[in-house]
Amino acid sequence: MKRPTIHDVAAAAGVSRGTVSRLLNGDKYVSPAARVAIERAISETGYVVNRAARSLVTQRTGTVAMVMSEPHAKFFEDPNYSTLTRVAVRKLAERDMSLVMMLAGDEGDRERVVRYVRGGHADGVLLVSTHAGDPLVDALAAGPPAVSCGAVIGRETVIPYAATDERLGARQMTEYLVGQGRRRIAMITGPMDTPGGIQRLEGFADVLGRKASRKLIAHGDWTQASGERAMTELLERSPDIDAVFVASDLMAAGALAALRAAGRSVPGDVAVGGFDDSSVAVSTHPPLTTIRQPLAEVAQETVRLLLALIDGAEHVESVILPTELVIRESA
């Protein structure tokens, strides 16, 4: 069966080929009646837009690259990334655009990302989980518009972003643990070259002041295994810990495993608080008291900012959304 062409659509709609072409390329100067007729003809003929041909006219690819600066294993382990990806795909689909997921966890991956983006294959870039000093950020500077999910350290005023108020969330959790009568409160941070790692530690210290001693702070890398290692380290250093704020739910799941192995009850001996309110938080035993960050809204705002830049906006304002304490059984 012959594939329908733009000529078939024009004939079925009773308009010129040029009018169909203008509509398909986003021209606003097409009458409402012609628009309705063309859309009906497209549906009736089964015509599918040739994206390659359209891109020659519009200089657009209809594609956005989501670039995550983490190893492959982290993408599949952490449910936060699937939330961001799912929402971004849905929001872009509303504009008939596609998302290409690219992982940049090592030098080879970064080189492939740079070749792809600089080669003109994407209209914009969504940056996810960038680290301070990441060479990829500089390498992409000369390319299409970029927006980050979370601030890019050192580039907060240069690269627009959407994020949660991570420092506020950390304060909310620490104040809650203090209010529960906990006196020896430890923390497991995220990587200290990420905004989440830095700002959640800052919020913890805002509340505890000098009580937030180095002895009570251990560092993880957002993975469950790192949370387990860090919790074991904290128990060896300070056996009298009665609470721990863990900077992600996934690491908190690891901390719970370490506490079980050490014979500590939760929350009886040690209260555990997480951060994210991801699917992990309701699957642990006991379920996690945690900080809810509105990741779906963050993803929507990130896409909105990027589309505005792609459409020609010279400047967009970054967006910071509030967090919320969610109380369950772990604290």
Strand order of the largest sheet: 2-1-3-4-5-11
How many extended strands? 12
Shape: elongated
The share of residues in helices is 40-55%
Number of helices: 13
Describe this structure as you would to a colleague.
It contains 13 helices and 12 strands. α1 (6-13) packs across α3 (32-45), α6 (79-93) packs across α13 and α11 (224-237) crosses α12 (249-261). α10 (195-208) links the parallel β6 and β7. The strands form 3 sheets. The chain has a 6-stranded parallel beta sheet, with helices on both faces. The chain has 331 residues and is α/β, with parallel strands linked by helices.
Summarize the structure.
This protein has 331 residues and is α/β, with parallel strands linked by helices.
Please give the structural blueprint.
Layout (H helix, E strand, L loop, with lengths): L5 H8 L3 H8 L7 H14 L5 H8 L4 E6 L3 H6 L1 H15 L4 E6 L3 H12 L5 E5 L6 H5 L6 E4 L11 E4 L1 H14 L5 E5 L5 H14 L8 E3 L4 H14 L5 E4 L2 H13 L9 E3 L16 E3 L2 H16 L8 E3 L2 E3 L5
Parallel strand pairs: 1-2, 1-3, 3-4, 4-5, 5-11, 6-7, 6-8, 8-9
Antiparallel strand pairs: 10-12
Helix pairs in contact: 1-2, 1-3, 6-13, 9-10, 11-12
Descriptors for this entry?
single chain, 331 residues, alpha/beta, six-stranded parallel sheet, four-stranded parallel sheet, 44% helix, 15% strand, DNA binding, HTH_LacI
